[in-house]
Write a structure and sequence with these properties.
single chain; mainly alpha; 1 helix; SPW_0924 family protein
């Protein structure tokens, strides 16, 4: 019984840590400024 409780608490802590890490990653990605969408190479259209 004691090992089962320890395993359940460990799994719960691991899940909480994973959710926290995912939320932190989303928060960091939302705070970064958006980069302009400018192509590095452009090709002229033939006949234009």
């Amino acid at each position: 019984m004691h090992r089962t409780l320890a395993a359940a608490l460990t799994a719960l802590a691991a899940a909480a840590l994973a959710v926290g890490a995912a939320l932190a990653l989303v928060a960091v990605l939302e705070t970064t400024p958006e980069q302009p969408n400018v192509p590095l190479v452009t090709f002229g259209r033939p006949g234009a």
